[in-house]
Amino acid sequence: MIDPYEHIRQNLDIEEVARRYGLEVNRHHKALCLWHADSHPSLSFKKGRYRCFACGASGTALDIVMKLFDLEPLESVKKLNADFGLGLDFKGEYRPDTAKIQEMERQKQLQKAFSD
């Protein structure tokens, strides 16, 4: 049996996951931190993990999904499986919360429009 957590670590790029769910990762592999009010990118991505140099938060792609969507670890694995087509076999289905993703994108665009 495949360990789904290890499968995610090996098959998903953390920056791709961050971008898919609305984080803007710059060319220096940094983004605004999700764990504190951040005005300059302090969340750094390296070797499949993130670390914030301002608040010290660190973790994996799974942690990003858990934080953004307020999910438990297994629910986050199911979401990543569904959203990225990983082909992991779970009983029951998880459907992507497209409404929440769209709302996050709308909020990001509004924030960007007001900051320019």
User: Tell me about the biggest sheet?
Assistant: 4 strands, antiparallel
Number of domains: 1
CATH level-4 homologous superfamily: Zinc finger, CHC2-typedomain
CATH topology category name: DNA Primase, Chain A
Order of strands across the main sheet: 1-2-3-4
Order of helices and strands: HHEEEEHHH
Which word captures the global form? Answer: globular
Distance between the termini: 50 Å
Number of strands: 4
Mean pLDDT: 85
Structural class: alpha+beta
Percent range of helical residues: 40-55%
Reading off the top of the CATH hierarchy, the class is best stated as Alpha Beta
Task: Supply the CATH architecture.
Answer: Alpha-Beta Complex
Runs in which pLDDT lies below 50 for 5 or more consecutive residues are none
Supply the number of helical segments: 5
Beta-strand fraction estimate: 5-15%
Description of the molecule:
The chain has 116 residues and is α+β, with helices and mostly antiparallel strands. It has one domain: DNA Primase, Chain A (Alpha-Beta Complex), CATH 3.90.580. 47% of the residues lie in helices and 10% in strands. It is built from five helices and four strands, in the order H-H-E-E-E-E-H-H-H. It has a four-stranded antiparallel sheet. A hairpin with a 5-residue loop joins strand 3 and strand 4. Helix 3 crosses helix 4. It is globular. The relative contact order is 0.15. The model has no long low-confidence stretch (mean pLDDT 85).
What's the layout of helices and strands?
Layout: H1 4-11, H2 14-20, E1 30-31, E2 43-46, E3 49-52, E4 58-59, H3 61-69, H4 73-84, H5 98-115
Antiparallel strand pairs: 1-2, 2-3, 3-4
